[in-house]
Amino acid sequence: MIYALLAVAMVLESSAPQPLPPIDREFRGVWIATVDNIDWPSKPGLSMAEQKAQMIKILDLCVANRLNAVVFQARPSADALYKSKHEPWSWFLSGEQGKAPDGNYDPLEFVVEEGHRRGLEVHVWCNPYRAVHPAQKGPVHASHLSVTDPAIVKTYGTYKWMDPGEAKVQDRSFAVFMDLVERYDIDGLHIDDYFYPYRVKDAAGNFVDFPDQPSYDAYVRRGGKLKRDDWRRNNVDRFIERVYKGIKERKKWVKFGISPFGIYRPGIPEGIKAGVDQYADLYADALKWYREGWCDYFTPQLYWPIKQTPQSYPVLLDWWVKENSSGRHLWPGNYTSRLNPKDGNWSPTELVDQIKLTRKSGPAPGNVHFSMKAFLLDWNGINGVLRGSVYRDAAVTPASPWLTASAPKAPRVTVTVQGDMWQLDMRSATSEPARFFIIRANRADGSVRTLVTSDAKVDMWDTSFAEIRVQDRAGNLSEPTTVMRPGLR
Fold first, then answer.
1. At what angle do helices 348-359 and 313-322 cross, to 10 degrees?
2. Which of these, 467, 465, 435, lies nearest to 453 by C-alpha position?
3. Relative to the CA of 42, which of 294, 301, 417, 483 has its CA 20 to 30 Å away?
4. Could you tell me which of 112, 1, 101, 127 has the C-alpha nearest to residue 44?
5. The pLDDT of residue 16
């Protein structure tokens, strides 16, 4: 049967129904770890079809759990899970470093496209200094930095690390980061807590110093006056500032996220204790970066329970809130994988209560979960708990007004009718493309459904009207365009 098509604008005027309740704004992210095949792919060497199917399962589960962002690890250790101009394909992807995945597809491009279709922001997670991870069982490729320039790569414990004191290292990581920003339509670039490496001990139990004497000596010969510890911190400081400014020069809307160790220094705030002093051991002055505003969101890894006094989640959260003089987003990291019955066996209530505490911390809250495996394996039934409580309703990522505060114009919407079906055809009202279209409408039971997508055409469900907004790349929302289901006006 051939149905006649009717394509007319259905913008409501005096007969408009009551507006829907406000949209919840909250960042709900999850790390997708590729190092050691923690989350994806499940093992090296899978076919393209298997890798894509596993990623689709992950992205669909994120939507089902009402998350709205993924933080995808694209550079675990001077390698690439994308078509890099600078570094070899990752061993964790193919089982052979330097070997392109089956089908010669680009995994990052796939994640970006499929993530955006599902209304998920895609942030690329990179490690700036790790060179070789011991989980890599095969040899490094001839193009790997440890082969092409071995003098700037140091063996430290069971790992190899790029020396942050070497200008070549700083330039290499900066070039990799900017290449990702320039070539991919990502929403953020993200780094974690590995700067100078966590300290290792020798067989006698003594700490071993990181072997960067040659680069420090060269600094001194050039007239450098800083003591070695301060010089190390300055190396990292300069890189962080350079990356932030480099991103903004290229694509202002791409957010820079930093996820440092959750405790700045033992004893800060009073009563907090930790075995690691990131300022003194990792040479990471995370508080300085936070105060200077060299990031768009700050994700300290608050990986401890609420009632664990030496590292209390609420005490640390409150301290980071008070230190936010730059007014950046504070979206703490949560150790969701502690729900694993074999590794912590946290109750889902612990995680739910942490999210509730975070929501009290400011007007644009958020959390980032480590890692996706907790949801894939549904440890302690966490998926159902989240969907039935703190993530019962969908939320849209908060705006970042320092990137741009001007809201986009309401979208242009055409309704197309085919038989009993109706479809929305949505367009940005300006030349600036929409990051997402946000469709909200009642369900049959009267509850509100929120659909976020980059797709311009959407088949509507059984409802009498819909509100459609545009969200721009900085997270700003337009006013709604409201349309009625044809035949009900």
1. 20
2. 435
3. 301
4. 101
5. 55
The Cα–Cα gap between 58 and 38 comes to 13
80: DSSP letter: B
Q: In the numeric block, which tokens belong to residue 444?
A: 């049959």
- Pull the structure tokens for residue 485: 């289901």
| Strands of the sheet with 436-442, listed across from one edge | 448-453, 436-442, 465-471, 481-484
Contact 437, 452 (CB under 8 A): yes
Task: Please state, in angstroms and rounded to a whole number, the distance separating the CA atoms of residues 68 and 261.
Answer: 24
Q: Are 11 and 483 in contact (CB under 8 A)?
A: yes
Q: Rounded distance, CA 201 to CA 273, Å?
A: 21
Query: Can you say whether residue 336 is alpha, beta or left, with left for phi > 0 and alpha for psi between -120 and 50 degrees?
Result: alpha
In contact, 141 and 147? CB cutoff 8 Å: yes
Residue 440 corresponds to which amino acid?
R
Q: In 202-331, at which residue ranges do the beta strands (DSSP E only) sit?
A: 207-208, 255-258, 297-298, 329-330
- Tokens encoding 278: 């990131």
Overall average pLDDT of the 166-192 stretch:
98
Cis before 107 (ω within 30): no
Q: Where does the pLDDT of residue 165 fall: very low under 50, low under 70, confident under 90, or very high at 90 and above?
A: very high
Within 13 Å and on the Cβ side, how many CA atoms surround 259? 28
Q: Enumerate the H helices of 275-400 as residue ranges.
A: 278-281, 286-292, 313-322, 348-359, 373-376, 382-387
Residue 306 amino acid letter? I
Eight-state DSSP code of residue 379? G
Taking the C-alpha atoms of residue 19 and residue 207, their distance in angstroms, rounded to an integer, is: 63
The predicted-structure confidence for 238-272, as pLDDT tens digits, reads as follows 999 999 999 999 999 999 999 999 999 999 999 99
Average pLDDT, the chain: 94
Tokens of 316: 């640390």
3-state SS class at 49: helix
Residues in Cβ contact with 84 at an 8 Å cutoff, skipping those fewer than 6 apart: 176, 179
Token digits for 424?
Answer: 């929305």
Residue whose structure tokens are 């709205």 = 68
Write out pLDDT tens, residues 59-95. 999 999 999 999 999 999 999 999 999 999 999 999 9
| Nearest in space to 452 (alpha carbons), one of 119, 187, 122, 121 | 119
Task: Give per-residue burial for 302-317: e unless 16+ CB within 10 Å, then b.
Answer: bbbbeeeeebbbbbbb
The residue type at 328: R
What's the half-sphere exposure (Cβ side, CA atoms, 13 Å) at 182? 12
